[in-house]
Amino acid sequence: MKKLISKIFGTQQSGIIMVILLLGVVLTIFSGSHPDRATGAQVNNFLNQYTLMQTATDASFFAIMAIGATIVIISGGIDLSVGSIYAFAGVISAMVLRAMGPMDSVPTLLTALTLCVGIGLACGLANGLMIVGLRVHPFIITLGTMWIFRGIAFVASKAESILIPDCLTGFTKATFGLGTLYPVPMLIMIASTVIGAIYLSKTVMGRHVYAIGGNADASRYSGLKVGRITTGVYVVSGLTAGIAAFVGTTYYGSASCADATGYELYVIASAVVGGTSLSGGKGSAISAMFGAVLIILIRQSIRTLHLDQNYEWIIIGLAIIIAVVLDQINARLTSRRLLKSVAEKQNIETIKSK
Amino acid sequence: MEEEMKKLLTGILAAGMLAWATGAFSEDAKKADVPGKKKLSIAMVAKSSTNPVFLSARTGAEAAARDLSAKYGIDVKIDWRTPPTEDGQVQAQRIAQAVNEGADAILLSCSDAGKVNGAINDAVGRGVPVMTFDSDAPQSKRFAMYGVDDVKAGEQLMAELAKQIDGKGKVAILAGNQNAPNLKKRCEGVIKEAKKYPGITIVGTFNHVETPQDAAAEVVRVMNAYPDITAWAMVGGWPLFTKTLLADLNPDKVKVAAIDALPAQLPYIEKGIAPILLAQPTYNWGYVSVEKIVDRMCLNKEVPVMNDMQLVPVTKDNLGTWARQLKAWGMDVQEEYLKLEK
Prior knowledge:
- The structure holds 2 protein chains of 2 kinds.
- By secondary structure, chain A is mainly α.
- Chain A is 75% helix and 3% strand.
- Chain A has a single domain, classed as Orthogonal Bundle (ABC transporter involved in vitamin B12 uptake, BtuC).
- In chain A, the strands form 2 sheets. Chain A has a two-stranded antiparallel ribbon. In chain A, strands 3-4 form a two-stranded antiparallel sheet.
- Chain A is globular.
- In chain A, 46% of the residues are buried.
- Helix content of chain B is 47%, strand content 18%.
- The longest helix of chain B is centred in the N-terminal third of the chain and has 31 residues.
- At the A-B interface, strand 1, helix 3, strand 3, helix 11 and strand 4 of A face helix 3 and helix 4 of B.
């Protein structure tokens, strides 16, 4: 048990998990309660199945995109266009589905998924090719495509909010016998996080991303194809935006060109709060997911604790800074602990060899 | 004599006690006469907490909560959950959160009806009735809507503007958020009515972020691009919350008619730039809607699905009266307008 606890506290995510748990405890204690509509029993306003699931659902749209954003930031880049890719993929998918007319559930689902993912990939590829081909800083290229993708969505949809077939909402809002709880967005978020974590830590491609983010020149001299890897990370970012668009559009039942406006900043904040270094070379998909959960939790706490809503942006800004500082303190303490234990080991080995 | 006085005093005292008791009991009886819920927490989700019209709706809702609590002896509370900027997805999340935290009813103005239909239906499914105001979600299971008939409002706006420009000229439409269904309908109404005037040409419909500065900047940009514009039909009065257009628009060349007439917008009437503003009693969005929710949930009264709000034309002729009305609704109004006779 002691080993397990020390293992948990020794992980990269321990700082942010602590912050989330601490906030959870504060919310549980101070949120108050209300009588359950069915049974009349008192229910904690925060610690109930609906609120916890809703928190995970709200975080899932940011978290899925944050995994892609994390991979981009680890490589030393930035992607400001994810919110616009989300809106673009959602709008075009909804328009195509409307044009195709009623179909069976499975073809409808596959069409929507293929379109969202395909458009996300295409947008990501366009970003990557322009960044590498034109040798322009990713901030500029993705700032430009942020407006272009949303603009195309605006022109194509004529700013209309397009409803999508009910069977798609039925898929994302499947309850699996859990009453009115909808776990699908959370499950997709967890699956995306696991795949992202495996990609980054267990594959050669993932290690290449860390390498170019740590030192692009050294990576180039050691034979890595930096241009190809850079293009690849923007494709992954586009892909995650496409998946998030599929989940978001089908969950809320409509798509419009204004969807996910400003979400790129929340997504980048999720990655950074999760410990991803903006200078590249450091970060993890799991931390990005926790970062998204923390940001949603902070947003939610303002209402759960009945704080004045006018202070929302100030509180979120301060909380992000505090979370990052706490995470950095924890990282420093962990590295000091590791150094100390390595030094102790070396001392023991030196004494033994003597 | 002393005995008689004693009897008289006792009689008066007894009568007083009886009157007090009867009064108290009748008051209690009146308060106990509420057949439905005795405690009501209404989550209010408007479009944006940075838009002054929704702040006045909040003031109205809170006033109604106070008045109705006192009148019926019930405990009505307004739980303000409006996002800082317009976002249908965030509205849907806030509806779900309010339901999870025990709200008894939801009062909503939809930024994007398509996005909130699911959340409304989920709330209703979990026993929480939803009422909309200002901007409706007609395909959802909401029980009622309070607001203007938007197509008619657009028609009325264009008709009033046409009077100001003698039925001829180039008119631009300022349209706000392109996703808000109510604003789209108002624009439809403006265009429909404009067709009745052969001398009027619609230059275009211009969308913008619904903040006063963005709206004012859009008007200036459009005026630079189309210098021959002679009138603006503003389906919402966003740019009139700034003072920019007081200097940038020449009342001899350009006339404005807009929906909304809140305190900051009144100088535009006085200067003749906006000879007429069609006021939405936005305070009533909150006040009347809360009354309807209490009617349904506490008093078990029938509430019609559509509850029309009438626009109030405000001109120089009734500027003082309107300013005093705004003041009575708890708004800060410039003293000079309050002193006006009419």
